[in-house]
Specification:
By secondary structure, this protein is α/β, with parallel strands linked by helices. It is built from ten helices and ten strands. The strands form two sheets. Strands 6-2-1-7-8-10-9 form a seven-stranded mixed sheet, sandwiched between helices. The protein has a three-stranded antiparallel sheet with strand order 3-5-4. Helix 10 links the parallel strand 7 and strand 8. Helix 1 runs parallel beside helix 3. S-adenosylmethionine (SAM) binds next to loops.
């Protein structure tokens, strides 16, 4: 198969493109990754250079090749009940002490293919019984959102799901769907997936009791992080909680938040 080489100037063009659109900060080490992810588009269009592909991307509509390039340049790794301590905290410290009866709203703010949002949904359903709740989940990549809405996963991806939740909320595929599982419709109906670019104004999405913003801050520089945290704090209810990934930090950008435990913050 034809191997393409990216020049420094072509790499810099894509680097500026993804920084301007998504805030993602690609280091020089990401050159091989960018080359391998975009090469299939060069083949698709029978282009010889990354410059030709870049020209097409910038000339295309937002929902055309530009979105495809964004989809390819984002990293979407995720899994069910990732970083279990957060789910323990949500269960024992937040849900167990819930007093008021208004709709409990959670935002999975960089949801990728939906495993995080459905993990939260399983816990809310199990803990809240008939109390109202809903989950808003969002991502910049339209490809992962399409997958998330289906709620249909390969069985080898379900390791983190507790056994009783597997029984209660997941339908095992049979026949053509052997080796897959489908998240129960009752849960899927309470989770909505919408495109949101965290770097842009967020619009009217309401306020949330809890926001999960995990494993996405690592891609941003300090300036972008500060902007995003400021916008998210505005979307938290007073006393609402923000969760970030265990390898991430809010050092220097946590205005309006107090630390509860490492990686869990509360709006002051
Ligand atoms: C590694 S996944 C994290 C998924 C999940 N939160 C978790 O912790 O498992 C990071 C996600 O952030 C999304 N993302 C990157 N930049 C974004 C932006 N500016 N706005 C919204 N989502 C973004 C990517 O598309 C990707 O799906």
């Amino acid at each position: 198969m034809l191997q393409f080489k990216i020049t420094d100037s072509e790499f810099n063009s894509f680097r500026s493109f993804i920084y301007d659109h998504a805030g993602i900060n690609l280091s020089d080490e990401k050159k091989t990754l960018v080359t391998s992810r975009l090469s299939k588009r060069l083949r698709h269009y029978s282009f010889n250079t990354f410059q030709e592909y870049f020209d097409l991307v910038v000339a295309s509509a937002q929902d055309g090749e530009r979105q495809t390039a964004i989809d390819l340049l984002t990293t979407n790794e995720t899994y069910f009940f990732r970083e279990p301590k957060h789910f323990e905290f949500l269960e024992k410290e937040i849900l167990a002490n819930l007093k008021n009866r208004k709709t409990f709203r959670v935002w999975s703010a960089a949801s990728s293919t939906g495993e995080e949002a459905y993990s939260i949904a399983m816990l809310l359903d199990a803990m809240l019984g008939l109390k109202p709740w809903e989950i808003f989940a969002s991502d910049i990549s339209s490809r992962v959102l399409r997958k998330a809405r289906q709620g249909h996963y390969l069985q080898n991806r379900i390791d983190g799901i507790p056994k009783e939740f597997l029984r209660k909320y997941c339908l095992k595929g049979v026949g053509d769907n052997e080796g897959t599982l489908l998240i129960d419709k009752k849960l899927r109906q309470k989770v909505s997936f919408e495109p949101v670019n965290l770097k842009r104004p967020l619009g009217d999405i309401g306020l949330f009791e809890v926001i999960f913003l995990r494993n996405v801050l690592i891609y941003f520089d300090l300036e972008t992080k500060a902007l995003i945290i400021k916008q998210l704090v505005e979307k938290l209810q007073p006393d609402g909680y923000l969760f970030i990934g265990h390898s991430e930090s809010l050092k220097g950008v946590h205005d309006g938040l107090e630390t509860v435990i490492p990686t869990v913050y509360r709006k002051i």
